[in-house]
Design goal:
Layout lengths: L32 E2 H14 L7 H11 L3 H11 L1 E3 L6 E4 L6 E3 L11 E2 L3
Parallel strand pairs: 1-5
Antiparallel strand pairs: 2-3, 3-4
Helix pairs in contact: 2-3
Length: 119
Amino acid sequence: MGCACVKPSTTSDDRPRTTRIRKPEPWSHTEAITRVQLNALREEFWDTAPHYGGKQEIWDALKAAAESEIQLAQAIVSSAGIIVQNPDLTLCYDERVTGAMYELPLYVLSEPTNLIPEE
């Protein structure tokens, strides 16, 4: 019987790369939008996104991260096994499923600069 040579698991090559999450850059909707309209867009996105591919639990984790403060979002993404391609969470991958890509629009991640204030 022989012995296989195995790289130690503590080398930097074996550690998953962690991208630090940050808030998205300021953005504007195509026209001024109310809070009610923004919330409707967000609801529609989260309701339909899983139908275009990927795992429901990853979509749920991304939604929780999108609605959380940066530090909590970082913990959610890390524990869910999400590879963050863009630090603002607009493009992510599932580390367990090859090719599972998740694209998030800016309107689910932050407020637009042309949000109409509530009266």
